[in-house]
Amino acid sequence: MKKIPDLFKQKDRTYSFELFPPKTDVGYQNLLKTISALALLKPDFFTCTYGAGGGNRDRTFDIVQHIQTNHHFPTVAHLTCVLHTKDEIKNILTNIQHRGIVNVLALRGDPPQTHPDWKPGAENFHYSSELCAFIRKHFGQNFGIGVAGFPEGHLLCPDRDLDAKYLKLKMESGADFIITQLFFNNQDYFDYVKRLRVLGVTQRVIPGILPITDYPALLRFTKMCGATVTPEVKEIFEPIQDDKEKTLQTGIDFAIRQCRTLLAGGAPGLHFYTLNKTHPVDVILKEARC
Ligand SMILES: Cc1cc2nc3c(=O)[nH]c(=O)nc-3n(C[C@H](O)[C@H](O)[C@H](O)COP(=O)(O)OP(=O)(O)OC[C@H]3O[C@@H](n4cnc5c(N)ncnc54)[C@H](O)[C@@H]3O)c2cc1C
Q1: Nearest residue CA, atom 16 of ligand 1?
Q2: Ligand 1 centroid to 147 CA: how many Å?
Q3: Which amino acid residue places its CA nearest to atom 29 of ligand 1?
Q4: Which of 108, 165, 204 to mutate to test the pocket of ligand 1 (most atoms within 8 A of CB)?
Q5: What is the pLDDT of residues 56-71, one digit of tens each?
Q6: Are 206 and 177 in contact, with CB atoms under 8 Å apart?
Q7: Of 9, 147, 289, 290, whose CB count within 10 A is highest?
Q8: Are residues 157 and 166 in contact, defined by beta-carbon separation less than 8 angstroms?
Q9: What CATH number should be reported for the domain holding residue 79?
């Protein structure tokens, strides 16, 4: 299966879909159907998230393997290092390599609610840059490595310049590409890319897009991940939040505008947070792709 950096050699732009592993067997079976529908939209690659401390972490790799084997799309397995020792991470990487997985999104992750006070020790990784370096040290170029980027700075590091320097460290530690946190002000993305280029980061920064389909859920989610709900988003979506149909249609229009502006401004593709749904990403991708 192709590594993402090799895919980049053939494509100036990539369009990708992010999935998450469902908690139940029924959810898992439903996701397989959704994957078949998403595959018809011909993305360039998929990614699947990894739950820190969850019981369904192997499901991430099952899903990645399923997509690669049955639908033949390159797929990136997210991998968080919180709660794992370095030895465990080495075993996981060895196992997934045997399963034919060649792309990972190297993340630190956050301590889950079950272990809120967890702190890394000598046997753990402190930051994702250490995970990147570890993968390169022990697995050479066998994996394509992506990392997370934060156009508005990270929740724990709102100093955007400092956070960009930490991002640079991830790239110097072996990462190949960046997928960003969701954002709604495109200028934040463009400024972020500019900041990184000034620092000498040359790799692709793929913008992460979350279509707005449920405003109260968006408020809850952005509080956790630190993305700003801009005055524009508030003004548009607050008054219609009780009208699900109107929110959906308005969210589609907003995302199409956002995607078109990003691509026109030089973004090297789009990464969609699908929330395991085909719609509305199907419509947005059709309208925005070029
Ligand atoms: C595209 C994307 C996908 C994601 N997928 C998942 C997923 O699958 N599962 C999941 O649980 N979470 C996921 N997350 C969330 C992510 O795990 C959290 O945002 C987490 O808090 C940070 O992870 P990181 O890899 O960016 O950490 P790091 O890069 O380690 O950064 C963590 C914090 O430490 C700071 N920092 C970095 N290096 C240093 C240093 N050397 N010294 C001091 N400070 C430093 C950074 O500025 C930041 O504040 C994802 C996020 C994004 C954007």
Answers
A1: 109
A2: 8
A3: 128
A4: 108
A5: 789 999 999 999 999 9
A6: yes
A7: 147
A8: yes
A9: 3.20.20.220
Shortest-distance atom of ligand 1 to CA 79:
8
For residues 119 and 38, what is the distance between their CA atoms, to the nearest angstrom? 38
- Taking the centre of ligand 1 as the mean of its atom positions, its distance from the CA of residue 154, in whole angstroms, is 8
Q: How far apart are CA 287 and CA 20, in angstroms?
A: 25
CB atoms under 10 Å from CB of 116, counted, come to: 8
Locus of tokens 């408020």:
219
Closest alpha carbon to 158 in 207, 205, 226, 218: 226
Q: How is residue 50 written in tokens? A: 């990894």
Each residue of 176-206: pLDDT tens digit? 999 999 999 999 999 999 999 999 999 999 9
φ, ψ of residue 80 in degrees (nearest 5)? -100, 145
Domain extent, residue 180, equals: 4-288
User: Hey, whose CA ends up nearest to atom 11 of ligand 1?
Assistant: 109
Q: What is the total count of domains within the chain? A: 1
| Catalytic annotation present for 123 | no
